[in-house]
Each structure stands twice: as C-alpha cells, then as structure tokens.
C-alpha cells in the first residue's frame, strides 16, 4: 500500500492535509497522527471494519481494547452514565493526557472495546489531533502508532519506520511533549481506579478524590493471582530489541553496580548501552553507548525522552541496556511502569 506522508509545520497554513487525512478516516482508512502523549494510529471508532485495520497494521492482540479520541466533552451519545466526578475531572484535565473509562453505549462496536462493556475516552490537547477528530466528524479509535510490543513513537520518523506501506496516511507534527501514554482512570467503578499511570499523576487526581488509587497489579510482574484490569498492561510492552536491566536504589550504589556490570558484559564481548541522566553521565566510560534522558530534577524531560532513547539504542545495535531506576513518585510512577515492562521486570535493587 502507498502511504501518503504529510508533515505539518504550521497548522493554519497546512489545513489541507488535515482535511485529506480526515477524508481517509471517513472512508474507513487508517491514519497515524501526532498527540501530546505519543503518536496515535487512528480509524473511525464507530466503524468495525475500519477498527479491524488498526489491529492488522499493528499486529495487536484482539483482546486489547482501543481508546477513542474525542474533540469535546459531550459524551452522552457514546457512554451510558457520566458520574458527577467525571465532569469535575474533565473540566480540570481535558483536553490532556488522561483517558476515562465509562460503561459504553451500543454505538461503540465490540471490536473497538475488545468485547468489554466499557470504553476508554480521551480528549487530546494536540491541535492537529483535535482538528483531525473534528474534521472526521467521528470519535477516532487510536492506540499508539507502533508495531505491537515496540516502544511507542514520539515523533513522525518513528511512525514512518513502523508503519510506512501498512496504512493510508501519516500526518506528522511536532514531537510528543509528554512522551508516555495517557493515564487511564476507570470511572465505571467507585472509588475510581488508575489502570495505567501516565502524565496526569496519582497525586494530581487525589486532589479531586483522595480515594483514587492505582490498580495494585500494574507495578508488579504478572502472575496467576493478580491480573491488571487494563487488558493491555499484561503484555510485554515498550520493548526495544536489546535486553534491559534496571538498577534501582541508592545513587552511589547504582552507579557502582552499573560500572561493575558493564565491565562484565564488555569482557563477554557484548555491546552495552547505559541509560542515565545528565547528573550521572560523567561517571560512565566512553567505551559504551550512553544516552542521558535529561536532568533527574525534571521528570517530565525524562518521560519525554524515554521511548526515543530505547529506540536509539536499537539503532546503535546494543545487546544490553543498563538503565538507572527512578523513585516511584509523581511522574516517576509512569516512568518506572514503562521501564519495568520494557525490561520484563529484570530489576536489581541496590
Ligand atoms: P494503547 O492505546 O496502545 O496505549 O493501549 C490502550 C490501553 O488502554 C491498553 O492497555 C488497554 O488495555 C487499555 N484500555 C482501553 N480500553 C479499556 C477499557 N475499556 N478497560 C480497561 N482498559 C482499557
Ligand atoms: Mg500502545
């Protein structure tokens, strides 16, 4: 399939490409587009045949539901009940990186919700995404625009890498600001429960309802007794081709351990990468591939650069990535959640 690629520099002058992409969505096609979290792979969320194409293009398991993206807060036609807390939460955090789960109406096809009776809805803040949804005149079902299992793309080049030839249209814009997927908050239960940590943190949500908590299953390795409530969280995810090991805990011990380990790997003729921060770059020798995610004082920078760093290590052909851990607090919760999944829970506490 030929993929049309259109990169928008200035939304006011390039409006034509959004119209073009919207006409692909209206006809049941698939379009990759920028959002503030990561790039999305969208199709008409109310058209089962269109939605199926998303699963095919990504190689996504059928039991992993999609989030639908809307351009306003009027959800009456899509969901059964809107609890009063939902209005308060939408007013505070929408548009933005927060997905809300509601009981769905029948208008949402089963393929979109993977046969669940609930649906995840989000209003993104990215201007191109909002215009695309408005012009399409339908909610856009969109998972991240990567081949299933790979780190989510945060710029258009990574979308092209994964999806050129597989979908009709790639709409490019600026780099994603948040860098990790949306927080998912289940409002179909009381008290509301966070099913996936993201840019809107537990601490921020607790300001609205202090009973809000994180699904205990998601920070741990999957086991028979506790399964995450968001079906997608059970898969190995966000994973580069290289193996990842997280070293977490006391700063000095972390650096010492990484130095020890990397010498060992080098002796065994492996190509090693170290994923660190601005403050620690100087401690590692230049015999390894080093990527800094930014300053530890700015967790939003760390989150923004995380997936791109994982993909860059693959470009460099490293065999193993030694990654420094982060404290599981505020945005650190989302960062560690993605890191642990990428590392298949290979984590060394020091
Ligand atoms: P992605 O769009 O690739 O970031 O994946 C969407 C995530 O949202 C997956 O982890 C899904 O399992 C989760 N999700 C979507 N809809 C629901 C729902 N109705 N209930 C629970 N989790 C959901
Ligand atoms: Mg995804």
Automatic annotation (TrEMBL):
GO terms for biological process: regulation of translational fidelity; tRNA processing. Its main location: cytoplasm. It is found in: Cytoplasm. GO terms for molecular function: ATP binding; double-stranded RNA binding; L-threonylcarbamoyladenylate synthase; tRNA binding. It catalyses: L-threonine + hydrogencarbonate + ATP = L-threonylcarbamoyladenylate + diphosphate + H2O. Keywords: ATP-binding, Cytoplasm, Nucleotide-binding, Nucleotidyltransferase, Transferase, tRNA processing. It comes from the Bacteria. L-threonine binds at residues 37, 69, 122, 142, 182. Pfam families: Sua5_C, Sua5_yciO_yrdC. Coiled coil: none annotated. It is an enzyme of class 2 (transferase). Its EC number is 2.7.7.87. InterPro entries: DHBP_synth_RibB-like_a/b_dom (IPR017945), Sua5-like_dom (IPR006070), Sua5/YwlC_C (IPR038385), Sua5_C (IPR005145), T(6)A37_SUA5 (IPR010923), TC-AMP_synthase_SUA5 (IPR050156). GO terms for cellular component: cytoplasm. PROSITE patterns: YRDC. ATP binds at residues 60, 64, 118, 144, 152, 196, 238. Residues 15-200 form the YrdC-like domain. Required for the formation of a threonylcarbamoyl group on adenosine at position 37 (t(6)A37) in tRNAs that read codons beginning with adenine. Belongs to the SUA5 family. This is Threonylcarbamoyl-AMP synthase. It comes from Clostridium intestinale URNW.
């Amino acid at each position: 399939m030929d993929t049309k690629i259109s990169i928008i520099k200035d939304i006011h002058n390039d409006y034509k490409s959004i119209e073009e992409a919207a006409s692909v969505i209206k006809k049941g096609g698939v379009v990759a587009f920028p959002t503030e979290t990561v790039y999305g792979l969208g199709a008409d969320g109310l058209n089962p045949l269109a939605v199926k194409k998303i699963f095919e293009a990504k190689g996504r398991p059928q039991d992993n539901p999609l989030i639908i993206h809307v351009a306003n807060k009027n959800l009456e036609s899509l969901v059964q009940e809107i609890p009063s807390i939902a209005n308060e939460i939408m007013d505070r955090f929408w548009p933005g990186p927060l997905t809300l789960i509601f009981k769905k109406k029948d208008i949402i096809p089963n393929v979109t919700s993977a046969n669940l009776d609930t649906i995840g809805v989000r209003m993104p803040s990215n201007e191109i995404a909002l215009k695309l949804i408005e012009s399409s005149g339908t909610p856009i079902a969109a998972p991240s625009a990567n081949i299933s299992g790979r780190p989510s793309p945060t710029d258009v080049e990574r979308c092209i890498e994964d999806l050129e030839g597989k979908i009709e249209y790639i709409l490019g814009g600026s780099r994603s600001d948040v860098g990790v997927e949306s927080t998912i908050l289940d409002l179909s239960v009381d008290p509301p429960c966070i099913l996936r940590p993201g840019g809107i943190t537990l601490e921020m949500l607790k300001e609205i309802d202090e009973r809000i908590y994180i699904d205990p299953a998601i920070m741990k390795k999957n086991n028979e007794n506790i399964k995450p409530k968001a079906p997608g969280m059970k898969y190995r995810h966000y994973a580069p081709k290289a193996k990842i090991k997280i070293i977490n805990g006391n700063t000095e011990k972390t650096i010492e351990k990484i130095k020890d380990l990397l010498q060992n790997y080098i002796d065994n003729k492996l190509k090693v990468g170290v994923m660190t921060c601005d403050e620690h770059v100087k401690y590692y020798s230049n015999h390894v591939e080093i990527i800094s995610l930014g300053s530890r004082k700015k967790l939003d920078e760390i989150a923004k650069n995380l997936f791109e760093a994982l993909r860059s290590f693959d470009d460099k052909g490293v065999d193993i990535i030694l990654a420094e851990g982060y404290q599981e607090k505020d945005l650190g919760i989302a960062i560690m959640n993605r890191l642990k999944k990428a590392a298949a829970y290979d984590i060394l506490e020091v």
